[in-house]
Amino acid sequence: MPATGSRVARNAFARLMARCAAGLRVGSAVAAGTAAFAGLDPPASAALVAVAVAGAATWSVGYAVVLWRRPVRVPVGLDVALTAALCLGQGRLVAAGVLAGSTSWVFLFASTTVIISPLVARSVVGAAVAVAVPAAYVVGLELAPGAGAPGSAVLLVVQGVLVTALVTVLRRAAAAADLAVVQREATERQAAVQAARRAEERESYRTLHDSVSATLTVVAAGGISRRSMDLRRQARRDVEVIERLNAPDGPAPDGSPPVPDGAAPGAAAPGGPAGGVGVAGGGSELAGWLYPVVAGAAVAVTLEAPIPAVPVPPAAGAALAGALSEALTNVVRHAGPARVRLAATAADGTVTVELTDDGRGFDPAAVPASCRGVRESLVGRMRAVDGSATVNSRPGDGTGVLLRWPGDGTGVLLRWPAAGPTADPDGAPGSPAGLGDVIAARYRRGMDLVVILLVGSWHASNDLVAVVSRWPDYRWAPAEAAAWLALAAIGVAGGVRLWRRRTGRAGTWALAAAALGAGAVGTAGVPGPALFTAAGWAWGAVGWFGVLLLLRRPPRELVGFLAINSAVAVAVLAHDGELDRIGLARAATAVYGPAALQLTLLLAARAVAATARSAAALAAAEAGVRRRRQIADRLHADRRRRYGMVRRSVTPLLTGLAEGTLDPADRGVRHACAVEASRLRRLFAETDDVAEPLLHELRACSYIADQRGVVVDLQTTGRLPRLDRDARRALTELPLLALAGAERHARITVLARSDEVAVSVLVDGSGPPPGPAAEGPGVAVTVMDGTDRQWVEARWRR
Amino acid sequence: MATVTVVLVDDHPVVHEGMRVWLEQDPEHRIELVAAGADVQVAWTGPGRDADVVLLDLSLHGEMALAEVSRFADAGRRVVVYSEHTADSTVLDVMERGALAFLAKQEARAHCVATILAAATDRPYVPPLAAGTMASDERPDRPALSEQERTALLLWFQSMSKAAVAARMGIAETTVRQYIQRARIKYANAGRPAATRTQLLARAIQDGLIRVDEVTEYASRASRPAREVPAPAPSGVVGPGRYG
Description:
The complex is a heterodimer. Chain A is of the alpha+beta class. Helix content of chain A is 61%, strand content 9%. Chain A contains 20 helices and 10 strands. In chain A, a hairpin with a 5-residue loop joins strand 4 (388-393) and strand 5 (399-405). Chain B is globular and about 45 Å long. In chain B, helix 1 (13-23) links the parallel strand 1 and strand 2 (31-37). Chain B contains 12 helices and 7 strands. Classes of the chains: A alpha+beta, B alpha/beta.
């Protein structure tokens, strides 16, 4: 049965009800058949009873099988027809003495039909059956010679109406649960997709920052010779990084760490598993992740001890390797000549990697927000796996980088970061348990309410009428009134406890014992022959109070409770000498009917939660598939959009550097590298959540110029309106190109009004003209070339 | 041959030194720094009392000396404010209180001579940042600038070169200057009365930047006898023309 997101709870409920119905049908056939033969007495004829019982049993089994399979159309009509036939013929099927009461085997069968029909059919059908079957029962009694008043038919009607009401309430609960599930799933899917996109973006930007961007920045700054084989190797690897990021299924975002060595752990699993979920990287041990990084570093690293070969999850391994790689890159770039030491330890499940150098050092507080190295590549990367990175440095005092990964409690269990495409699309918060709890909680409330109302209304109507109307029949009537009042008090207490979810054993059984005691007093006051008439109300009532009190207790407790209650009735029968063959058959029938219904109700209340959970698991799995597919689609689209540009412009540059056809010392090449590095930095800056994204991205655009020693002055006036990313890109593109050509000074101005934003850059020097100026949505550009300075402006108008 | 005297109010001694150097950049040495101090008293007593221009750092002893700006302006003292606080609201507030010019600290070196020389003759000089602030002004009660005036302000803010603005707009450099000055006069013409502002308007009428009937009721009602000022040198020699 395919459970879809919108029908999970209703389907689970329907299946459960069908199974209850099947069980009750077969059980009633067995009990009724037993009672029919045990209580065989004129005018019932053995042959006719045998045929009727055989027919009823055969039908019941067949009907149960049909119900179990849950067809679209349930043959309720046939069941009702057979029941009606039994009712009409009860004059020849039931012993004369049993006929009028509610203890004949036909009554038991009819009662079951009335009860199970609403479970498996629509409420309207259930209500119709609650009229049709009692009608046939009355007619059957009328046809039988010498039968008494058809009072027990009323009981059939009441049963049918109550069960129909109960099922209607629970179906509503199921529908409400379905709606909640649908809403939840939609929000969760959206959140998962967003989180995945963001995590993937950030991770791939970290990768780009550590590889491509770092290379371009170094070339732009100058000082790299054409003969540098290191540069060629790095450029070749960078091209591969771009190709990997650009691949349709992409790398797992935890992916191959961009370690400067072809033998990177990630390379062992090319491309990563489809969908970005799973294990990437062959090196599952810490040593396997870190050694290649150390070996590939452009600086000699002294190991204080061998790197421990402890197993780490790929996500943590990749994060540690990536962070270490970035730290080493920073040493090469900023520390100057330095001795570098590495200490990696693993103790108590915590991995610690400490990299120290005695180089120039720097002031961590002076690192601008647009400088991503420390913030993203170290801290962000470690935080993504619940680890941490701290950088200690003082100018002139060397630098220490401490990476800590606190383990995941198991040491070896693979666990993925909480937010990300690898963060198990099936996992929390949309976990099956969570979903099941939503459904189960809805049911539980509905079930509790139904049981409280059922018991309360039964006691206030049927029981009260019985006590008053049969007052003269009791051995000592005031005892009946006292028993009724005691049960009413117990019912109130039990109902309140149930609603407040207080179902402790001691309290529950104190009330249960009191109910049994009150019931015994009430039952003992009834003369044996009247026990199974309305006068014997107390005995029947106690069973329902048992359901109310023990609804949230293990089923065996209710079985025990009902057994004690039945023993009281049997004791009264024995005391009054009523325990002959027919009396026993009546007692069995009288005990079975309500007990079966009461136990079924209890089991249904319990099973509904479990069924809801398993159905929810199915729904969550399907939702997970949907989510994963949507994530994959979105990520693919993102990549195409994001890396298309990088690939078109950066790859030829890196390829030229790798093959030696481009000279890194050439002014034009350096300028091109500055442009591309700035574009990458702007791309990274676009993922940051800041108050003024345009200014943030402009600072990112000027970072490379700043690195080259250009004095950059940024002036802004006016309040920036909200601009979308395309408009911001169009506004920053020309300034970016101009900044790449600046020599000593650059003045960036931003003038903003609600309907207009003008970004201008004034630079000295006559760098290469900034190519075909990029116009974008609503953006016009102007270039003024002077002999010794260049002035460009990009202006957006609403 | 100093023709203009200046008193400097700034609580950073090193700025006194820097300002002295910057003022001496003027090849004709037309500006003489007659007094400098950390407190506004220096401009009300001694040689500072008679200085043509008060150069006031907005942040004195950790506070914004906005009230001092009003006090100088109401007394008819030509006050030029310079500050590193360049928020639009601050720049506009300073002009509103009657300062003749707002000079951002980072542009002081390049523009202080032109600003002070213009102020000494009650002529407007708009340093680039103040121009940008005026061009981005969107307050509902802002003066109505023409499109050309706004464009000139914006491009001047961007390029810091009136020649470049002229080339970009396809007009003469003197016209660019006129647009900028007219925009500044419109700001002087709309707002709270102050003696300095009246002087500015009077000179603008004299220079033909604005007609008498364009001066608002508000400003003319506030007219009061102008303080004795040195006779203006012929425009183009001392005036902002040469440096503006």
